[in-house]
Amino acid sequence: MNLNEACKLLEEKFNIKEDTQNIYVYPKNSDGSTNLDAGMKLSSVHDQSWTLYEVQRDQEFELGQFDTKELGILALYVAVKGRFETLTVDQQVKEELREAGDVKSGLAILQHHVSKAYFSLGTEKKEAINVGEEGNKYSVYYVAADAQRIMISKSRPLPGALVVTYNYGRMLEEFDRLIKPWKAKQTISVYEEEQLKRIYMGK
User: Fold this and answer.
1) pTM of this structure
2) CB of 150 within 8 A of CB of 85?
3) Is 173 helix (H, G, I), strand (E, B) or coil?
4) What element of type H or E holds 15?
5) pLDDT tens-digit readout, 91-142
6) Strands 119-121, 128-134: parallel, antiparallel or unpaired by DSSP?
7) Contact in structure between 143 and 162 (CB atoms under 8 Å)
8) Residue 69 CB burial class (10 angstroms; 0-12, 13-18, ≥19)
9) What's the rounded Cα separation, in Å, for the pair 80 and 126?
10) C-alpha distances in angstroms, 181 versus 36, 70, 104, 130?
């Protein structure tokens, strides 16, 4: 992804500024001015590597490093989409999950609204949101392509764990939708895709 492509996708809701070493993206206020409370910054030193930061007023938090500008800009794009845009979820589905009395009924609801590729209840699955039982409580975690576990939520009652699974399953679906056109245009390794996914998920 190049900067012009990113600008076309983001310019309606975000202000984008570039100088010799940095690209800044901040949300727009209702009057079109820049909201400086929080944003994203992609920085480079001599174009040799690119580092992505989340900016909160006068603080910066590193999110990742990238070997090429194109991959850095793609990371900037997914970070902005994940951090500043609200993912559409069905509130009725969440209410149904809150009323689920057992794993079987929760599974029946989830699989009608999230592809089974993105979640698993009981049997651990890579590149998916997993739910594990611990006594009468449930933990929700993501399993990366390299089998690394990334904890999302621990020791929840089943209904709460199901809602978290739905929310993050929808995030994985949306991430794949966002990144699919760019995978056809540039080479992205499994490691790089996992890095982008973690940035999008905020994990």
Assistant:
1) 0.92
2) no
3) helix
4) strand 14-18
5) 999 999 999 989 999 999 999 999 999 999 989 999 999 999 988 899 999 9
6) parallel
7) no
8) middle
9) 25
10) 30, 14, 36, 27
